[in-house]
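Much of the work behind modern protein science is quiet bookkeeping, done one molecule at a time. The protein below has been through that process, and both of its lines are reproduced in full.
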Amino acid sequence: MKLALKHRIFAVHAVVLALGVLLSALTYFHGRGVMDVTEFLVEKDLPALKSLSDLKADVIELEPILYEYYIAGSRQRFLGRMESNAQRIEANLSVAREAFPVSATVAAIESRYTEIKSLARQLDQALSAERIDQGKARNLIAAVSRTCAQIVQQLDGMVKALQNRVSDRAQASHDKVYGIIGLVAFFSGMLFLVVLIAGHYVKAYLAGVAERKRAEDKLIYQACHDALTGLSNRYMFQERVVEALSGGREGVRPAVMMLNVDRLKQVNDSLGHAVGDRLLQAVGERLRTMLQGCDEMCPGNSLYRLEGDRFAILMPTLAVQDAPVRLAERIAAHMKESLRIDGRELFVTFSAGIAVYPSDGEDPVALVKNAESATHAVKRRGGNAYQCYTQEMNASALDRLELGNALRYALERDELALHYQPQLGIAGGRIVGMEALIRWRHPDRGAVSPAEFIPLAEESGLIVPIGEWVLRSACAQARAWRDLPGSPDLTVAVNISARQFHGRDLPGVVERILAQTGLPPGNLELEVTESVAMRDVELTIAVLKKLKEIGVKLSIDDFGTGYSSLNYLKRFPIDKLKVDQSFVRNLTTDANDVAIAGAIIALGHSLKLKVIAEGVETRGQLDLLRRYGCDEMQGYLFSRPVAAAEFARFVHEDRRLDAAA
């Protein structure tokens, strides 16, 4: 009996041991399977899914890149963006090939993308030609649009297939996890000792599963959100716009608003990118908080950060017809309050463009593109406003494109000329200098206003060679007049653009031109606007000091229209202040303008600077300026800007202010 009992005890122990071994083997088998499935999800499927989504976004981005090139004509920007886009597409295609090694769809996408690159090269050739074939360019863009749509459709199918595969693997992973839990529960009563031994392994494994799940969630979140602000990103914006337009509900009119933060580059350049990033975070938070109270106007609105200084708002439903306009006005009102960043008070304004479906675009790409066109129109006017899209904007953009292309050849075709507006001493009434002003006579359009072509030159970068031509021509003309017998000692004033001032070595360019033309440095005056001078004060001081060492005269143009600090102004090595014509225009009717002009004159004299007033058109304006002690004037009261020959006649005849007035 005792022996039999021993055998039974031994048999029970043997069974317990066998069951423990079996439980351990089953647990390990299921655990290994879960780990393999989860690792495949995290390391293969989810990155492939993100790459396909990125590939789709990059393909969708191709059409705006080509359209921007068609509208703006900036070939360098086009080539740069196309190269960057191509690198991203090739990288994502490589991931797609690994995820779908024998897929005909991937091969078809690669083939269509090769076709797109060929069309893009043809478009580049068409837009770079001396005579641009607008019809061909539009047809090429349309062909790219169709091919992109085909690729997007194929990518959507691949994404769906990959999502199904991910879902199946995830379900398999979950099934195996629950299998483990079931095994543990079933054997827990019988195999308490085995459970104690295996407990640590099970706990560690489950912790690993949870960690991998958190990693998966983090990857998905990062793919859909902006890392800086935490807002949904461009990918989510594009997806939500597509969803909003494909809802098909009767009477629903979705709208999009594109928002560009004005002068963010100025903040980055002057205070650093870290401050700029914190400013963007504060802007995003303020917009998000404000939009939470706007559901009565546009239910379900959502905010996105696209890139850089660009935000977007999607309004899937408009409760009232003018909801986008009301929202834009509310945003402007909320942003009037300053943002405090690192102890500094910063004020933020937006350039906002609005497009409403379907009147402003019948598909997502057109709707977003037209909202961006409206935004660009606001930025060209100086920002801090909103603009609803109009069809005329496309015509205006095309006209600007044609004018910009013509401007590229204006210099070599000798279509540009300088006119000179006399500058006179108010006390003596004699001509003491002249301001050189550029004029353009287009062979077909005739005289083109500087207000039209100067902004185009600024945007395209042509202002640098044009500005250098103006400086060289003005110096050469001033030197020629100086050599005439009996000619007075005159100073020629030349405006310096923002790109010239903050670009390459301006002092070196000035010194070289003076040497080439033989004009004494003291007969050249460079005018820098107040806003340009204040953009980067330390850089401004350094450049002005170098120019002053050359011996040229320096003046601050449009004084009183910007935000000069007197502390900075006294550090500028300048010779003259120019009172902006906006203060002179109503000098005889507006007491505020009288006070401002008088204050500027007094300020200039207290700093031992000369003061000149521009835009003087009436005798009454001149009398007030004389009463306040203004040194010099220019304006239609004496003469409009005239050609060189007519200005020379003024000097030869010794025409004076009192006689002209």
Observations:
- The first helix runs from residue 2 to 72.
- The chain has three domains: 2-224, 234-390, 400-656.
